[in-house]
Design brief:
alpha/beta, single chain
């Protein structure tokens, strides 16, 4: 269901659109990342906390774009992001976040 191709620009070879954290000054700037991902046909977007919101996730998903978040090392925070619809959580504490994911069978994809 997700997959629109691979392009260059702010886009990595794997089709993931990323933006430097210093470019993000507000949630509005974050929304521009989603707009660019749509415009360039990306299939993933990297969101940075705290510069994203539910509207951005919903808009990305409406356009079949996977949402990654950088980052969560806290179980409660990870659960909040999963509830928002985040598809991938980057973390420094895999075991802690894996426990949060495993509590919710609907998120387990293996």
């Amino acid at each position: 269901p997700y997959g629109k191709g691979h392009l260059a620009c702010d886009i990595q070879p794997n089709g993931l659109l990323v933006s430097r954290i210093d470019q993000l000054k507000s949630e509005q700037s974050g929304l521009e990342i989603v707009e660019r991902a749509i415009r360039y046909g990306c299939y993933k977007v990297q969101l940075f906390k705290p510069y994203f919101n539910q509207e951005m996730i919903d808009k990305a998903h409406e356009n079949h774009i996977i949402c990654n978040v950088f980052f969560a090392d806290d179980e409660e925070e990870a659960e909040k992001y999963l509830d928002m619809g985040i598809d991938t959580i980057l973390t420094n504490d895999y075991h802690k976040i894996a426990k949060a994911v495993e509590k919710r069978e609907k998120y387990v994809t293996y």
